User: Which sequence fits this backbone?
């Protein structure tokens, strides 16, 4: 709501979430619904919740930057917000856009498993609505079904991306904590859902979804070969390069493809068994990095990559190439 009433309720709701007073938070949420229904206040409930989520997200980031001294407060803030999300996500009548907000909120506090589960349920619902097709008849009921069908078509790609992105992040965490055996089924599940969803929504050539598929390969360390991440990133980069003047998604995915190509080449080089092959591969990686170095948007990411302690074996080759190129 644009009026002061909505903002006051937002501040109160945020405070109740932080204090883990879920009963009070629920009552305030109901009041937000009521206030949002008033036309004179305009924007409705969801923007207020997005604002609250944004404020909490910023608080979490600020606490993270403070380090160990703020760890206790950080964990408490995350837990209280998670409990609030758990509580409101149980409502079966929540609008789709509201559920998307809950998914992204779970993601913002690192609860990728809960985010993925909610996204899966919403994706399955939207897929079912799309498969039923638009209504053939006319009338009030048909108009409502047509609206639901149009919304499902609009929502499906977004929810699919959220589902796979959170499944991937959850699988990465399981891989780190429990190993490949436990993580492999999660990655496989993500691959299957993504492939089916891309086919259903005709997203097979959409760069964002191609990049998501390549990240799944990269996370599993499937770097080499014609269907590996290295070939995939290189092909995607080459396909997007002629269209960079369009900016937006094309530009962002292109930059990601360039960076991840360097990353995968480096990781593959490190795995080579003999020293001579490894030296040649590291030199090749440094030369590849140099081809992207002059891009002002990409250079900070590459610089951070080089400054990482884990990539120190690449530095001698980079220094040699850098001097030759005059950087």
Assistant:
């Amino acid at each position: 709501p644009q009026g002061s009433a909505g903002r006051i309720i937002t501040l109160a709701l945020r405070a109740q979430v932080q204090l883990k007073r879920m009963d009070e938070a629920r009552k305030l949420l109901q009041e937000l619904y009521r206030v949002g229904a008033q036309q004179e206040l305009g924007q409705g409930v969801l923007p207020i919740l997005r604002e609250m989520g944004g404020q909490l997200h910023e608080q979490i980031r600020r606490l993270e930057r403070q380090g160990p001294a703020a760890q206790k407060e950080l964990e408490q803030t995350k837990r209280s917000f998670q409990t609030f999300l758990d509580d409101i996500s149980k409502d079966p009548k929540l609008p789709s856009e509201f559920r998307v907000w809950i998914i992204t909120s779970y993601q913002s506090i690192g609860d990728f498993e809960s985010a993925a589960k909610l996204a899966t349920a919403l994706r399955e619902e939207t897929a079912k609505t799309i498969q039923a097709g638009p209504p053939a008849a006319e009338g009030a009921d048909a108009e409502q079904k047509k609206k639901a069908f149009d919304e499902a078509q609009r929502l499906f790609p977004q929810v699919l991306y959220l589902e796979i992105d959170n499944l991937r992040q959850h699988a990465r965490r399981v891989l780190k904590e429990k190993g490949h055996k436990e993580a492999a089924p999660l990655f496989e599940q993500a691959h299957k859902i993504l492939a089916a969803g891309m086919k259903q929504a005709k997203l097979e050539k959409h760069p964002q979804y191609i990049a998501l598929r390549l990240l799944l390969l990269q996370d599993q360390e499937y770097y080499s070969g014609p269907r590996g991440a290295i070939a995939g990133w290189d092909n995607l980069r080459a396909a997007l390069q002629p269209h960079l003047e369009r900016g937006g998604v094309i530009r962002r995915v292109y930059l990601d493809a360039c960076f991840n190509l360097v990353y995968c080449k480096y990781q593959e080089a490190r795995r080579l068994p003999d020293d001579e092959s490894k030296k040649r591969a590291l030199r090749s990686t440094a030369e590849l990095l140099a081809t992207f170095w002059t891009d002002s948007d990409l250079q900070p990411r590459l610089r951070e990559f080089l400054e990482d302690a884990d990539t120190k074996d690449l530095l001698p080759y980079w220094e040699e190439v850098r001097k030759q190129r005059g950087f």
Observations:
- Confidence is low (pLDDT under 50) at residues 37-43.
- Residues 198 and 206 are 9 Å apart (CA to CA).
- The two ends are 52 Å apart (CA to CA).
- The chain is about 75% helix and 0% strand.
